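Translate sequence into structure tokens.
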Amino acid sequence: MNRLLSHIFLTFFVTLAAIMVFTACTGGYEGKMADDEDGAVMLSFRVVMPQAFSTGKSRAEWGDAYNPDSGNDFDNFLNGNQFHVVITDNNCEKEIAVVTNLFCAKTSVGGIVSYDFVGFVGSEFIDEIKAQAKCKLHIVANVGESVSLAGDPLFSFWGQPDEQFTAIPMWGVATIDFSGLGTETRFDLGDVYLLRAMAKVEIKKSDVSNNVITEIKSVSINTCNTVGYLLPGKWKEATDTREISYGENIHAPEDVSSGPSVFDAVSADGVIEFYLPECPNTEQNEIKMTVIYDTAILADQKGEIYFRNYPGDGNPDNAPIHDICRNHLYRFIILREGTEMTVIAEVKPYSVIELDPVFGL
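Result follows.
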């Protein structure tokens, strides 16, 4: 366990408990069925995340696997009018069809709630899809009402949620054998796993009794990327989202960093959290956060946090300096017992919460 606590990274995932808002999502399927679609084929699939990806998949020295949970509502939100399903060839060079008229249904088996989706592929695309033998099914969420995978699409969300930044961009892929397409009333595609395109940073104060910090007032970051790529590196090579080793090589645009930014929206439990696109972190331009906090007798005290490993003394190691990677939670717990702030960097899952989404607008 001590080895785990020395590292600052936690991969976090989209779960079945995600908040999803879609038109006509109810206890059963509604809307047009296949015979209303002029020869279109009905497709069904599930958006799921039953267990954590292995941390070793991204970087072996990060430690053992751990059990995930649902995170908060914002982390898992899927915007219904920004949820797209695209079929490409197996090399991801051509977008063949978009799955239309998406509907979802809530099911419960053994007390476990899940959400299944159906949609339609027009008859004019069926022959080309079948000719590919295997195609890739991509889910793209929270990046606008229209989207194309061509040209390495970008998003410009970052920081704390507001009227423009309402959900985290996500993507997932599965390879499907479509040779039997059109032979069944409903063609089941199986499970598709989603990957967040952003990292989450969380700063909270330690709850030990001798911590003199009473309040975190703001966190500023000296530099960060304000634009990110929706798709991870080597996305075309993956047959399944779970194959993506997104911690090994970040996929970030160049020359899109900002100057200092301040985050001062504090949650009800005194935590400051914000979201960042992937960003390289180098010795020449190291990312640094400055925390402004109060103690019982002193106001506006200052401490610094780096994206490095923190050993037991609460001070950062000189190396390595870590990049900011998509789909990771960076959680820092601050503590002051004497005259200086120290940092505890923990690896642990979110607090478990149960979400029961309400569908339909």
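Note: The mean pLDDT is 77.
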